[in-house]
Design goal:
- This protein is mostly helical.
- It has 2 domains: 72 residues, no CATH class; 88 residues, Arc Repressor Mutant, subunit A.
- 53% of the residues lie in helices and 6% in strands.
- Strands 1-3-2 form a 3-stranded antiparallel sheet, covered by helices on one side.
- Strand 2 and strand 3 form a beta hairpin.
- Helix 1 packs parallel to helix 4 and helix 6 packs across helix 9.
Length: 201
């Protein structure tokens, strides 16, 4: 029974990982097979609670790519206000960036929160004055919650919070787009570039 569950779960996860590309025909086909992300989660993970922990671990181990993790964690609703702030930062700052670049933006927010140099909460970091241009007078605008970009942002927020995958070092606290050249960038150590964003520690 456990072996059958593992085989089915791994096959389903592998199928979604292979076809997971937002705005693509394969993704729409996958969505047609599962009425919602929640249905897919139930199909792949739903019986994990009634099987030994090793079965759930096997499923998790079979989904190694970032795209696969997003497929499992994508959702419209966030689990907390803090997660909503993090998903909003991803959505407004980086939704057009590569997946790794979107995750990197989330990691910068979390790195700041843990650094002791910035506010000690995610929302505090995101709404801090003069830090993120999409925030106006401390207010985060409303995202298009029906969009794939928002569901992806929620997934990436969960992945970043749970540290399921990392792309940046914990001392990376700053970034900017490559088409601007802020003076503070010359005083910092360049860490990496992902998509249009250059990250610094």
């Amino acid at each position: 029974m456990i072996r059958s569950f593992r085989a089915a779960a791994i096959a389903a996860a592998a199928f979604l990982v292979a076809t997971f590309t937002f705005n693509s025909q394969p993704m729409r086909a996958a969505q047609a097979s599962f009425e919602s992300v929640a249905a897919f989660q139930q199909a792949v993970l739903g019986s994990a609670a009634s099987t030994p922990q090793s079965a759930a671990v096997s499923v998790a181990a079979s989904v190694q790519s970032l795209a696969g993790l997003i497929a499992i964690n994508a959702a419209v609703e966030t689990e907390s206000r803090e997660q909503h702030c993090l998903a909003s930062a991803i959505y407004f700052e980086a939704r057009g960036e590569p997946l790794e670049g979107q995750l990197a933006v989330a990691e910068v927010v979390l790195n700041r929160m843990r650094s002791g140099r910035y506010p000690a909460s995610i929302c505090g970091v995101v709404t801090q004055p003069a830090q993120f241009s999409f925030v106006r007078r401390g207010v985060i605008p409303r995202a298009n919650r029906g969009s794939e970009a928002w569901q992806r942002a929620v997934a990436l927020a969960r992945i970043a919070e749970d540290r399921l995958m990392r792309v940046l070092d914990e001392d990376v606290l700053w970034y900017h787009a490559n088409y601007v050249s802020p003076g503070w960038g010359r005083r910092l150590e360049r860490n990496t570039r992902i998509g249009l964003h250059i990250f610094y520690s």
